[in-house]
Amino acid sequence: MQISKEQIQLVNKKVEAGHESQFNFLAQTLDSKGVDVNAVVKKLADFQVAIPSWALGAGGTRFGRFSYFGEPSNLEQKINDVGIIHSLTQTAGAISLHIPWDVPEDYNAIKELAAANHLVFDAVNSNTFQDQKDAKESYKYGSLSNVNKGVRDQAVQHNIDVVEIGEKLGSKSLTVWLADGSNFPGQNNFQTAFQYTEDSLKEIYTSLPEDWKMFIEYKPYEPNFYSTVIQDWGTSFMLANACGDKAYTLVDLGHHLPNTNIEQIVATLMMKGKLGGFHFNDSKYGDDDSTVGSVKPYSLFLIFNELVYGMKNNPQNPYPAWMIDASHNIKDPLEDLIQSLEAIQEAYAKALLVDQKALKEAQLANDVVVCQELLQEAYRTDVRPLLREARLKSGGALHPITAYRSLQVRESLIEERGKYAVASGL
Ligand SMILES: [Mn+2]
């Protein structure tokens, strides 16, 4: 199923007048404060977030998985789903593939399908956290850090194969996330595990094409519960530096212990030119994979405040690769992703409204109260009319969730694919 521009226009018609008056009022208010509203709207329209191929079906926990009907069961259907989200939101112009779950059979056909859906291929993700069918070695005790050289070699080769697949699709980056670690004290030698990981990453890095980047993701726990080899941003940063200029740290919002100051991590990495990628989600306790902005929207805003500052003031840092990394257990995955995109855009828009000049002055004067007022002034602005204007200008839906439901997208997908189609992946 595909959604046409005409269908979206028809749905928009009913709410266009209301939007216009709300937008004009906000634009006037912001204009009087010296905000260049058109520039903000353009930035929102340009901001694109990749959707990972594994987020389109129902996820699950170790206790159970509750299927969502009409899930995409092959790569073509996954691309179609992202195309649907993109046509409604105009914010999801890229897809991120997981190998070996999504190896294309016909590369040209897949590239054509993506292009027809106005999508590009974002980072490719390797998988050394599961054993693959007919694999010679097992990752039960780790992959790039394994004490057995045969296992490490297999894991390195897998990453090289993933890069080759990505090259055929037009991807420009590889994301490495390791499940490596230990479940019990004494199980691993920390120093050896780190050294093997560094050596393995360097080997992968050597095979990286000239115009590619390698993102190194960190996580403090899970699936290993005593230690992980790449536990935090500092470890990832050390490994990226050991590899070279094309290696970067990737920040995943869910991969932090509770109350970690993620905005400060973002600021430090950007200052050092090493923030390569960013994974959005939200959580209450840990890596909960919840809808972006559903639990801690103010934290997300503070993080975006640093991202906006970094994108403006840190030319040494490349433009980060944005991706949603979440899993949906009880919602329609497409609706959840639309909500996530809205929350990302909202936090971004609010961060763009922060009066950076006044903030700098207040910081220099040690006026703590004004510093807080300036951030909260931006945060308290209802920026949703700006998001709607950006979508309207790009041909998207003013209210994507309402449009998704009134166009009966899920019903059509179930009709097309059958009720019990199950997404490939985890
Ligand atoms: Mn992630």
TrEMBL record:
Question: InterPro entries given for it?
Answer: L-rhamnose_isomerase (IPR050337), Xyl_isomerase-like_sf (IPR036237)
The GO molecular function terms of this record are: isomerase activity
Query: From which domain of life does this come?
Result: Bacteria
Q: Keywords on this record?
A: Isomerase, Manganese, Metal-binding
Q: What is this protein called?
A: Sugar isomerase
Q: Which organism is it from?
A: Euzebyella saccharophila
